[in-house]
Design brief:
With 194 residues, this protein is an alpha/beta fold. The protein has one domain (5-188): 3-Layer(aba) Sandwich (Rossmann fold). It has helices spanning 16-26, 56-64, 83-91, 102-111, 125-135, 140-154, 169-193; strands spanning 5-9, 30-32, 35-37, 51-53, 68-74, 77-82, 95-99, 116-122, 162-166. The protein has a five-stranded parallel sheet with strand order 2-7-1-8-9, sandwiched between helices. It has a four-stranded mixed sheet with strand order 4-3-6-5. A hairpin with a 2-residue loop joins strand 5 (68-74) and strand 6. Helix 1 packs across helix 7 and helix 5 (125-135) runs antiparallel to helix 6 (140-154). The protein is globular and about 50 Å long. The protein starts with a strand and ends with a helix. The chain binds guanosine-5'-monophosphate. Guanosine-5'-monophosphate binds next to strand 5, strand 6 and helix 4. The site of guanosine-5'-monophosphate (5GP) has 14 residues, from strand 5, strand 6 and helix 4.
Length: 194
């Protein structure tokens, strides 16, 4: 019985991580795929838990070795999804969430057309900017780079199966839980039929 692959994407600062944490805490058959990145850890981030932190040389070795289901450059850093772990989790019956940016989301959709695509966004680009500024871990230059990427990302909304607008946080939490619960249960139904 295989789980479903779920891509959660959307601009930086849309609140994806918080919503995903809530979903992981309340849906037992949902697992999170820990990505690799060359970005510096933020205060409090734990290696192997938030990300696998690699230097660029090691990351490039992993690309060469074909370890990634997808990888992309974002804001000057490399990010990638180790494929082996995702497959293990799916085979164990868990549905797996990839929290990735747009280029990576497109690659996953190409390689795994059965992946469910969920887009999370703030109510407006101004709100996105406020959240990025409020995070206080990004330099103002990094905020601007992320903002210009956000404009492209929001334009890709049509490529997704579901949209969650993160305005009222409690409502957004209910929305994403509803969507993800349904996906996980559908996975179970399909498994029962086959
Ligand atoms: P952050 O630096 O804020 O943690 O992440 C920056 C962006 O990279 C976010 O949009 C996040 O979803 C995305 N990201 C995180 N992991 C991956 C990954 O494995 N692959 C891709 N393509 N994007 C990722």
């Amino acid at each position: 019985m295989r789980g479903r692959l779920i891509v959660v994407s959307g601009p930086s600062g849309a609140g994806k991580s918080t919503l995903i944490k809530a979903a992981l805490a309340s849906i037992p058959k949902l697992a999170y795929s820990v990505s690799a990145t060359t970005r510096e850890p933020r205060p409090g981030e734990v290696n192997g838990q938030d990300y696998i932190f690699l230097d660029r040389e090691k990351f490039e070795e992993w690309i060469e070795a074909g370890y990634f289901l997808e990888w992309a450059e974002y804001s000057g850093n490399l990010y990638g999804t180790p494929e082996h772990r995702v497959n293990e989790l799916l085979e164990s019956g868990s549905s797996v969430i990839l929290e990735i940016e747009l280029q990576g989301a497109r690659k996953v959709r190409e390689r795994r057309p059965d992946a469910v695509m969920v887009f999370v966004r703030a109510t407006s680009l101004e709100e996105t900017r406020k959240r990025l500024q409020g995070r206080a871990t990004e330099t103002s230059e990094a905020v601007e780079t992320r903002m210009s990427t956000a404009v492209t990302e929001v334009a890709a909304l049509d490529e997704f199966d579901h949209e969650v607008v993160n305005g009222d946080r409690e409502q957004a939490r209910r929305d994403i839980l509803g969507i993800l619960n349904e996906i996980v249960e559908q996975g179970d139904e399909n498994a029962k039929r086959t």
